[in-house]
Amino acid sequence: MEKFILRVLVIVLLGGVVGLFAMSRSKVMLHLPPANTTNTGQTTGNTSTPPAPTPAQTSSSGPAEETPAQPESTGPAASTGAAPTPETPTNTAATPKPAAPKGTVEDYFITLDQAKEMLAQGDAIFIDARPFVEFREGHIRGAMHVDKRYFDGAAPKKVRDYLPGRPVVVYCHGAECTDSEAVVKRLIALNLGIGPYYIIRDGWPGWEERNKTDPGGFPIDVGGEVGFE
Question: Can you give the CATH number for the domain in which 118 is found?
């Protein structure tokens, strides 16, 4: 009996010792000091990095300042950045210049053979620009005599009556003579709708020479005008 009681006491005592040890162990773990932290906010032994701060958190004096919005430019150079080039005004009231005669006098020259064909066709009027004395001595058959001096005053009546709307072939003393050109220029200045104009380059001397071998193709008359009263 005494041994039984002794065993019970030993078991109780051991249980008490074990309980005290467990309690002391628990208190020691509960009072462990917290882990050390660094100034950068990282826990010792922890390799994780906190999220980067937002711009508002980087200012030490308060919330971040807002940049004021720039005013929108409304001027003429807002889109291109350069000053516009002023437009040059157009003068709509300017009087157009009269058109110059087409071509030059040199463009009017034709050969004796071309003049022969035109005479045969009978549509053109031939004009002799030599002095009237020479005209009476001989001229191309059916030619009208028109000296450049006739235009010192009003245009001759026969010019106004017979030439408008007709081709005109003019001749004088040949390639070196300018009387044909002078008559053509005066007729153009009348603005009577005469033309087109042609000038026989070899003139009367060339026609007269061809008449010797071909009188039918290069006919000649003497005396005054016929048909231009």
Answer: 3.40.250.10
Which of these, 221, 148, 206, lies nearest to 176 by C-alpha position? 206
Number of domains in the chain: 1
Identity of residue 93: A
E strand spans, 25-174: 109-110, 125-128, 139-140, 144-145, 168-171
d(CA 9, CA 217): 175
Greatest distance between any 2 Cα atoms in the chain? 196
The proportion of the chain whose per-residue pLDDT surpasses 90, expressed as a percent, equals 47
Domain membership of residue 109 as a residue range = 105-221
Residue 9 pLDDT: 73
Residues of the chain with pLDDT under 50: 26-101
Strand partners, 37: 43
